[in-house]
Write a structure and sequence with these properties.
The chain is of the alpha+beta class. Helices cover 33% and strands 18% of the residues. It has helices at 22-27, 30-40, 99-110, 115-121, 129-136, 139-152, 158-167, 170-173; strands at 59-64, 67-73, 80-86, 89-96, 125-126, 176-180, 183-187. It has a 5-stranded antiparallel beta sheet with strand order 1-2-3-4-5. A two-stranded antiparallel sheet has the order 6-7. Helix 2 (30-40) crosses helix 3 (99-110) and helix 5 packs antiparallel against helix 6 (139-152). The longest helix is centred in the middle third of the chain and has 14 residues, at 139-152.
């Protein structure tokens, strides 16, 4: 059995993480570990627990106004996964093995930088076209272009015809489009009509496609 400094053997919900995250296990949770690093650096950052009791040891979140971010422990390798949000829009994601970098990125995001500035400051993060378009107020036309391009790759399906028919209607073209299984959806908000989720730790150590926290771990 691996022992923490001081001869304490891990047990309970953190026992699977002791080899990869000894400082987190010693602190008792990711939230406490992040808060300790933030306090030592004088960041003035308030790190909160998630709203899901089952995730309180391995995940944490920060929030200021419309900006929020969450951090999460991967399971099979040392990897802190970070997701940044502006309202309900996913703006950036990334992973690092350095707890201090996680704290720095969380603090920087709550300062409300442009997403490009955040990525330049913390290169372990990445962003995408739609996030940048959201900052410019151009999310709706970009979503339409991406949807039409995706539908055009399968031109002989009903989806392609449906998307093109919807695009011809001026009132629908002003809405933000999205897809949900076999449905074409629309929203007055400039984002995909969906529920905001954060990631869960996947066995590969990275967040897999479709992984989501069981409750609003990254939301209010």
């Amino acid at each position: 059995m691996y022992e923490l400094p001081g001869g304490t053997a891990p047990n309970g919900p953190m026992q699977d993480y002791v080899m990869l995250y000894p400082e987190v296990v010693q602190a008792g949770s990711l939230q406490r570990a992040l808060q300790e690093v933030a306090d030592a650096a004088g960041r003035g950052l308030v790190v909160e627990l998630t709203s899901s009791p089952g995730w309180r040891h391995v995940a944490a979140r920060v929030e200021s106004g419309s900006h929020s971010a969450c951090a999460l422990l991967a399971l099979d390798e040392r990897c802190f996964i970070v997701d940044c949000w502006a309202g309900a829009v996913h703006m950036a994601t990334g992973s690092t093995s350095d707890l201090a970098q996680v704290v720095g990125a969380l603090h920087s995001w709550l300062e409300r930088p442009r997403v490009g500035e955040l990525i330049a400051q913390w290169p372990f993060l990445r962003t995408w076209e739609l996030a940048r378009a959201h900052e410019r107020g151009e999310a709706v036309p970009v979503r339409w272009r991406q949807l039409r391009e995706a539908a055009a790759r399968t031109p002989h399906t009903g989806l392609h015809d449906l998307v093109e028919a919807a695009f011809e209607h001026e009132r629908l073209r002003a809405l933000s489009p999205g897809r949900s299984m076999h449905w074409l959806t629309f929203s007055r908000r400039p984002r995909r009509p969906s529920v905001k989720t954060c990631r869960k730790p996947c066995r590969s150590g990275t967040a897999g496609t479709g992984c989501g926290w069981p409750t609003d771990g990254c939301t209010r």
